[in-house]
Write a structure and sequence with these properties.
The protein is α+β, with helices and mostly antiparallel strands and 85 residues long. It has four helices and three strands, in the order H-H-E-E-E-H-H. It binds zinc ion. Zinc ion (ZN) binds next to helix 3 and helix 4.
C-alpha cells in the first residue's frame, strides 16, 4: 500500500474514533437558528452563546446542537441553577 493510501485510511480511522482521539480546545461558529443567527463559542471547556436563553440558563438549543455534533470531544455545558428569590 502506498503512503497516500495509508494516510487516507489512518485519517478515516481517526475520524471514526473521534470521541477518543479528538479534544476540542476552542472554536466559534455561526448557527442559523429558526429566528436569528447565533454565535456559539467554546474556550477551555466553557460554552457561550449570544442568545437570551443561554444568558438565563447557561445552556440553549444552539449549544446543545453543537454538543450533539461534537460528541465526547467537548465538555458538556453546565446548566445554571437559578437562584430562588
Ligand atoms: Zn443559544
Amino acid at each position: 500500500m502506498d503512503s497516500a493510501a495509508s494516510r487516507i485510511l489512518k485519517a478515516r480511522q481517526y475520524a471514526m474514533e473521534r470521541d477518543q482521539r479528538v479534544r476540542v480546545h476552542s472554536f466559534e461558529v455561526e448557527l442559523h437558528g429558526e429566528n436569528a443567527n447565533h454565535k456559539v463559542s467554546y474556550e477551555d471547556s466553557t460554552w457561550h452563546c449570544d442568545c437570551e436563553e443561554f444568558g438565563l440558563r447557561g445552556v440553549c438549543s444552539h449549544v446543545m446542537a453543537m454538543e450533539e455534533i461534537l460528541g465526547e470531544s467537548v465538555e458538556p455545558a453546565q446548566l445554571v441553577v437559578p437562584l430562588v428569590p
